Predict the structure.
Amino acid sequence: MKIRDLMTTNVATCSRNATVVEAARQMQSQNVGSVPVVNGDRLAGIITDRDIVVNCVAKGGDCATATVESCMTTNPVTVTPETDALEAALLMASEQIRRLPVVENGKLIGICSLGDLAVVDIHVNEAGEALSGISEQSRVH
């Protein structure tokens, strides 16, 4: 199965200049843990709930004035719509990530989450493979 068959296409995004609070409110309203950051329709990065905590809150930043650009993940791991679901799951596991922006010709066209893999009956347990890899103890504590 290909990612194009699993991905979410109606993706909430934000700009680099949005405040961290604006991004967090988007996450809250969409019930998601990340928001892709775009420049027009091009993917510029991704901001996650963890990015907000580690790169803004923990450093004493003011989330009302700090920009998304100041704490987002740049150059996120991405896939294309033609990526195989098993390949995406293994990529999630190896990179220990739960979300993959889907990009075609540099344009953000969707996002594939661990949950997207989990709700589909796939002949190989891609979601389990990814979750197992994501949940592995990392070397740094």
